[in-house]
Design brief:
This protein is of the alpha/beta class. 61% of the residues lie in helices and 9% in strands.
Length: 1271
């Protein structure tokens, strides 16, 4: 009983842990070839971060755990001696009373000692484990942050983010209480077998004969289960990557009607997981059942041979008590070793996982940006930059050359502009200056010193950068700016924001500078993000300033204001500017035209590489009449295509009025966006609390209904559990009778046959129970994941704007919640039935033998319940840290995803500190102590139960109300029932966690999106002309209901018209596009395409008529082919090629290593900004939409590419008679529109054609004159 109790209790806990790791963490680890052994680290290396404090804790934990293991044979010895004295024919009543009382006292003392030893051992290893885990997490994340940018180009960000959680979790399992259990098991094994050999070496050897069977069976079955589990983990990892990608790009998925396709893609990934899980469950059932069968068979062997030894006689004599003592010792030792073996397996997993972690930590990065010591620091930095004979290829694409013998000199204090078509290598120059990469040949010199010789942290602190797509972190505005210069005061930050013309905007927010900007700065507009990024660069006070399309997201009015600020910031600094709008760089000291490589040219020729074609001032290059001049003429021609109407008076654009207007425009956006953040901030805690404890009634019942199709599996699994539940009570009866049978050894053989039958019964019943219930659980998990993912992708876009619904948090719910439900639901059914039958049968047997002793022995149940409650509270408290873990994971994910920004501003240490802070890095000694106390009490209660039974049983024997055999039968039966209750409570924490998870899942499944993008209801158009109207539309975003964006908007446009939306940043232009795509519904008023309310239309069919290109296009981590065909999955290759040609991207794609089969990387990271945008345009064009929605669709293109793409769009629009709604800050792209709508504060300020609006002498004319420099 004792060994069985420990084996089952521990195997239950180990199984729980493995399941959680297997599914919940969903790591995408690189799998070694099948014929190679996976890499691992030596066992001692796992503890490389243990300090002297950990050494002391491990030492005392080792001593306590080893002593606890030694208490097991002590129990066996006492129990054997008691039975010898109790059933001896010559023993009288008074002597039996003395023996029972003495045994009761000894059991109590040993139990208290076991309690204290278990408490100390468990607590010491728990505290040491938490300490080492925190250090490991810090070191691993630090190791990731120490890598160079090239490492992130070839390593998937999702893989690294998952490893931080999964591999660390697997590795950290060896640091905690598992060590205590391992030492306890090994100690019990050594001491038990030592004592058994001492008492009877013959019987011990005979019992050891079954040990090889257990080891062989465990090794073979364990290997099969491990292989199945590894494949299962890999499949879940792929599904997790799809979920992360889809949910983070939900607008793109909705815009192109990709929800059903993504569901199919996700389902295909997890389809095979169910079969693998069922296979694992079957072999787990065989493993446990076979173990129990061998165990009961060993009982038969032990008692049969023991009876033989008693009969024939030995020297020294063998008695029934010695047989029982040896029996218990061998069984305790064997099953304690069996308990330890899975832990050895866990350690092997940890060694494999640690190898991946230590590989990153120990990897010698080519450029350590976190070291403050290595490299030179120049006493005085002048700011001269020289590229001398530079040859360069990106490490991830060695077959595509960028530069060969590239030379460029930037003098100190000089303002140099880099111009040229998209993909020419301009951004590569900026990356090399920041030393994101090292050159293959040649040198990059800073003040004559090779950049490789400089301390990288110091060097990057001297460089400020503002990129085309600025990245902000999920923190406050103040933190995002201050992180660039932690020593900056608040006043300095305010001044930097004033210079970036963002101070008034921020100050107008309800929480001012403490307003949260959301994930990736998502709560700010593009222009606001860019101005915050400019302020971040200013506060850095850099000697060298790099501007990569720094004002591309601004309207011309705001651009002029910010450009004026940048001009002030540039004074006294070396400035390198990348710009497509040549008007912004004409006053540069030097303009460098970089010609892109010609992939069709002969390899080795100058044309085969990007090269500096022209260099000089604007006037000098114009005189040369070369490529730069051609680019200028292209832009000037575009500017002159629609000259200003003659005879109209100019508009005074004085700086005061200009600044007032810009500030007003920005402030309007601020109120719209800012109070949003405050709303989010104020609601965040409440939302988090609701997430932790959702109020959904009957969630478990609903989950049961979802598992109804597996009723057959559940039925047979339940039958197996019921049969298995009777084995312990039957064992108690047989065991009691066999102890008496040693008085007449010739009758022992029939009990041996009973043990054999009980073994076969356990083999069948446990195999049936575990295999069937695992199959039902795996099928439930598959169904829950499919339903939950489908529910998420079909939610309205507003759902994802709400706090707590970030993609990372939702993916965590998708993986961990379903896993918790699956394990506890499937396991709990079997456990409850097993325990219930065990308890009921045991009590029936006990009451039949002695109702008095039964009632007394049942007194152990309240302490067991209290222990369960304490354990439950502790375990549930640990689970409550999930939100902090999710936030830490979000920090890791955003740091890895935005590694260039992190490195550019030396934010590695700051991000590591944020990560550790969210993990609650301080060791919780209180919880560790409570856990140790609870574990120790579980050890004590067994001894206490025997002590109580023997004491009170002796009293009943003294009164003549009980016989010794009835005493043992009653006590053993009650304790078997108590064991069943103990198993239930051992799962209490998991059950609580699963209940909360079930409520969350059901809440998601029950949520009906206010905008139905899945159903077939609603009116459909066979063809549409493209007309539409906004009638008195009022709107605010769901995440900020107190901030009105549109205020009674009225807009009409006819089919085939080109409509332009113009206005200051934040006036509601992009909101109109979102409403027309029906990402949101207005609060009041109607959006009416083709004269019908949009809410009456079938949304799927409506979106099929629409094409959408956004300012920051999202591409999927797939091939070019799949990304373009995402717009039209059934498109032919010829249609794809035609769309790419029209978007001016075909030749670029053909120049990639694998052409259209080249992977574009996560979010298109392997492409330039212009290439991404052209590919997004191709994805839109291939749909042949009737309504084309362009939200700054050409903002990332140079003027030549913009002109070509614009001409292609014009041609497509004319041929296909499209209606076009364009949001643009470049007036050159919209002045030919049929209708130009100027917006202000969510309302139409002016509308008409270019000539009409110019003649009004109003806001449009002011903007037009500012854009073209009219005076």
């Amino acid at each position: 009983f004792f060994s069985s109790f420990f084996r089952l209790r521990m195997s239950s806990k180990d199984h729980t842990k493995v399941d959680v790791i297997k599914v919940g963490d969903e790591t995408e680890a690189s799998e070694p070839p099948k014929d190679e052994k996976p890499p691992s680290v030596p066992y001692r290396s796992l503890f490389r971060y243990a300090d002297w404090v950990d050494g002391v804790l491990i030492f005392f934990g080792f001593l306590a755990s080893a002593a606890l293991g030694a208490s097991m044979p002590a129990f066996a010895h006492v129990f054997g001696e008691t039975l010898d004295g109790l059933f001896a024919p010559t023993t009288g009543v008074s002597e039996r009373i003395r023996i029972l009382n003495e045994t009761s006292l000894i059991m109590t003392i040993v139990g208290v000692a076991a309690w204290l030893l278990a408490w100390v051992g468990h607590t010491c290893f728990q505290i040491s484990g938490e300490r080492q885990t925190n250090v490991l997490k810090r070191q691993f994340f630090t190791g990731i942050m120490q890598q160079e940018v090239a490492y992130f180009d070839v390593t998937k960000a999702g893989e690294l983010a998952n490893r931080i959680s999964s591999d660390v979790e697997i590795t950290s399992a060896v640091y905690g209480p598992k060590n205590s259990l391992l030492i306890q098991g090994v100690s019990a094994f050594i001491c038990s077998y030592g004592f058994a050999f001492y008492r009877s070496w013959r019987l011990t050897l005979m019992m050891l004969s079954v040990l090889p069977l257990l080891l062989i069976a465990g090794a073979v079955l364990g290997k099969i289960m491990t292989q199945a589990q590894e494949k299962e983990t890999e499949a879940y990892a792929g599904a997790g990557a799809i979920a992360q990608e889809v949910l983070s790009a939900i607008r793109t998925v909705h815009a192109f009607g990709g929800q059903e396709r993504e569901c199919q893609r996700y389902n295909a990934k997890i389809e095979g997981v169910c079969a693998l899980g069922m296979k694992r469950g079957f072999f787990a059932g065989v493993s446990v059942g076979l173990t129990m069968c061998i165990m009961f068979s060993s009982y038969a062997l032990a008692f049969g041979y023991g009876a033989y030894l008693v009969t024939v006689g030995t020297t020294p004599p063998t008695t029934g008590g010695i047989v029982i003592a040896v029996f218990f010792c061998v069984l305790i030792g064997g099953f304690q070793l069996g308990t330890a073996l899975p832990i050895f397996g866990t350690f092997q997993q940890a060694q494999g996982a640690a190898s991946k972690i230590f590989e990153v930590i120990d990897r010698e990065t080519q450029m350590d940006a976190m070291s403050a010591e290595s490299g030179r620091r120049l006493d005085k930095l002048n700011g001269e930059i020289e590229f001398r004979g530079v040859s360069f290829r990106y490490p991830s694409r060695k077959d595509i050359p960028i530069f060969n013998g590239f030379n460029l000199v930037v003098k100190p204090g000089e303002k140099v502009a880099l111009v040229g078509p998209s993909g020419s290598g301009k951004s590569s120059v900026v990356s090399l200056i920041q030393r994101f990469y090292d050159v293959d040949d040649g040198e990059v010199l800073i003040d004559g010193v090779n950049i490789k010789e400089l301390n990288l942290q110091w060097w990057r602190s001297q460089v400020g950068i503002v990129t085309q797509e600025p990245t902000l972190f999920a923190a406050s505005v103040l933190e995002n700016i201050r992180w660039a210069n932690p020593a900056a005061t608040d006043d300095e930050i305010f001044q930097a924001c004033k210079e970036a013309f963002i101070h008034d905007v921020i100050s107008a927010l309800p929480d001012g500078y403490h307003t949260q900007v959301g994930e990736a700065g998502g709560q700010l507009s593009g222009g606001q993000k860019q101005r915050v990024a400019i302020a971040r660069a200013i506060i850095k006070n850099p000697k060298i300033l790099l501007l990569d399309e720094a004002t591309s997201a601004l309207d011309r009015q705001s651009e002029m204001v910010v450009q004026q600020a940048l001009d002030n910031v540039m004074k006294g600094r070396t400035v390198l500017t990348i710009a497509h709008r040549l008007v912004t760089i004409q006053d540069s000291d030097c303009i460098c035209f970089i010609q892109p490589r010609d992939a069709a040219a002969e390899e080795g020729s100058p044309e085969f590489y990007s090269r500096l074609l022209e260099k000089g001032t604007h006037a000098q290059l114009i005189k040369e009449n070369g490529a730069y001049t051609a680019m200028c003429k292209t832009q000037e021609q575009a500017n002159k295509e629609v000259p200003a109407p003659m005879g109209l008076q100019s508009v005074d654009s004085g700086s005061r009025e200009e600044e007032r207007f810009a500030a007003a425009g920005l402030q309007r956006k601020t109120s719209a966006r800012a109070s949003t953040n405050i709303q989010i901030d104020k609601e965040h805690d409440d939302v988090a609390k609701e997430e932790e404890k959702p109020k959904v009634k009957g969630a478990i019942g609903r989950i049961a209904k979802l598992n109804a199709p597996e009723w057959c599996w559940l039925l047979f699994g339940s039958i197996g559990a019921m049969i298995a539940g009777t084995s312990y009570p039957i064992y108690a009866v047989i065991f009691t009778d066999v102890m008496q049978a040693f008085q007449n050894p010739g009758t022992v053989w029939k009990y041996c046959l009973m043990f054999l039958g009980l073994g076969v019964l356990n083999l069948v019943s446990l195999m049936l129970k575990i295999a069937c219930l695992t199959a039902a659980g795996e099928r439930l998990t598959k169904r829950l994941r499919q339903l939950l993912f489908r529910s998420l992708v079909f939610q309205d876009v507003g759902f994802f704007d709400m706090p707590g619904n970030e993609s990372g948090a939702l993916c965590a719910r998708l993986s961990t919640d379903t896993t918790k439900i699956q394990h506890v639901w499937g396991g709990a059914i079997g456990t409850y039935i097993h325990a219930g039958v065990c308890l009921g049968t045991s009590l029936v047997i006990a009451f039949i033998n002695s109702w008095r002793l039964t009632l007394m022995t049942l007194c152990i149940l309240p302490p067991l319940i209290v222990a369960g409650i304490i354990s439950n509270k502790y375990m549930y408290g640990v689970a409550a840290k999930g939100s902090s873990t999710e936030k830490a994971g979000q920090v890791a994910a955003e740091s890895i995803g935005a590694c260039r920004t992190v490195f550019a501003f030396n934010l590695q240490k700051m991000q590591v500190d944020r990560y550790i802070d969210f993990l609650d890095g301080a060791v919780n000694v209180t919880k560790a102590t409570i856990a140790g106390f609870s574990f120790g009490f579980s050890q004590f209660i067994i001894f206490a139960a025997f002590a109580l039974s023997f004491w009170y049983g002796g009293t009943l024997i003294y009164w003549g109300l009980l016989t010794p055999d009835a005493l043992l039968r009653c006590a053993m039966s009650v304790l078997m029932g108590a064991m069943g209750v103990g198993e239930v409570f051992s799962m209490a924490g998991d059950n609580q966690d699963a209940a909360v998870a079930a409520e969350r899942v059901i809440a998601f499944l029950d949520r009906t999106p206010p905008i139905d993008s899945e159903g077939d209801a609603g009116f459909t158009f066979d063809e549409i002309a493209g007309s539409g109207a906004f009638k008195e539309v009022a709107f605010n975003y769901p995440s900020r209901p107190d901030v009105r964006i549109l205020k009674g908007l009225n807009v009409d446009f006819a089919g085939g018209q080109r409509v332009a939306l113009l206005g200051s940043t934040g006036c509601g232009k992009s909101t109109i596009i979102s409403l027309l795509m029906r990402f949101y519904d207005p609060i009041s008023g109607e959006v009416c395409p083709e004269g019908k309310s949009l809410q009456q239309l079938n949304l799927k069919k409506w979106r099929e008529h629409c094409g959408f290109v956004q300012q920051e296009p999202i591409l999927f981590d797939d091939t070019v082919r799949e990304n373009i065909k995402y717009g039209k999955p059934d498109a032919t290759d010829e249609e794809m090629y035609q769309a790419a040609r029209r978007a001016n991207i075909h030749e670029t794609i053909m120049g990639l290593p694998n052409g259209y089969d080249t992977n574009v990387g996560a979010k298109g990271s392997q492409l330039s900004g212009g290439q991404k945008q052209r590919m997004a345009i191709a994805r839109c064009i291939i749909r042949k939409p009737s309504v084309l929605l362009l939200d700054e669709a050409t903002s990332a293109l140079d003027n030549v590419s913009e002109k070509e793409v614009q001409e292609a769009l014009d041609d497509i629009i004319m041929k296909d008679k499209m209606t076009v709604l364009t949001v643009a800050h470049r007036l050159s792209t919209i002045r030919n529109c049929d209708l130009i709508i100027v917006m202000d504060q969510g309302q139409v300020l002016e509308s008409g054609t270019h000539d009409q609006l110019y003649a009004l002498n109003g806001d449009y004319r002011r903007r037009y004159d500012q854009y073209y420099g009219n005076k």
